[in-house]
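To whoever picks this up:

The nightly regression suite flagged 2-keto-myo-inositol isomerase as changed. Nothing in the input moved, so I suspect the structure step. Input below, exactly as stored in the fixture:
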Amino acid sequence: MQLCFNQATTLENSNLVKDLQYCEKHGYDSIEIRTMDKLPEYLIDHSLDELVEYFQTHHIKPLAFNALVFFNNRDEAGYKEIISEFKQMMETGSKLGIKYVVAVPLVTKEKILKRDIKNSCVEVLKELSDIAKPYGIKIAVEFVGHPECTVNTFGQAHDIVETVNRENVGLVLDCFHFHAMGSKIEDLKKADGSKIFILHIDDTEDFPIGFLTDEDRVWPGLGAIDLDGILSTLKEIGFSDVVSVELFRPEYYQLDAEEAIKTAKETTIKVVSKYFQFDTVTVG
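Regenerated output under the current build:
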């Protein structure tokens, strides 16, 4: 298992330069780069070539772009925007050597039939798959555990990915999102472990299904999520790739960025190492 850092965890108290510096210092293997804010911010004062050189000369590597947002059930203008953004991600991502683009389903108050959601997701993901294939970059679909997300359970997301049936289209399993809308361990037990590309690790305060928001996340092992159940099941179905720590906790944004990155690592290792052996990371 490799250890990854998602920049949401230090969203308001750091930047890409600091995140890379501290993640390298504390032994992370990879990083998920936020394309909606942290990468554009970096490119104001730095070049893409500088970032390429950094990854070439350091242990830490780029895992994913996070994220292509609201890819399904868009109007014509929105659809064209998604395709254009994705093509740019391919160009930039291929230079950096990223492995995945995280794709997030539409969040909306509009009521859309589940069959129409599935049909749109499958159609768009097949097109994205075709675009991504020459670049060798994979698409990791992240269901969001909120009532207003069009794809909000593991079972629903897994069914979509299975229907797409492309080698370069899989899933992000975020423990918070799995818990937040009551995704079923039984569905995870039946899943193909090779179709789960990234595990997002986190925990949450104990609010009812449908009421949880990202700000309720806490360090892994300090909340109400059945992490043991999720991790043991993932081991059973053959997942063993990468775990990425991702939180959006306002209190944690008040911490020094290095302290947050160090704590994220320590809490993640403590929880995950009960089931998976890390390749290079040690607690320190």
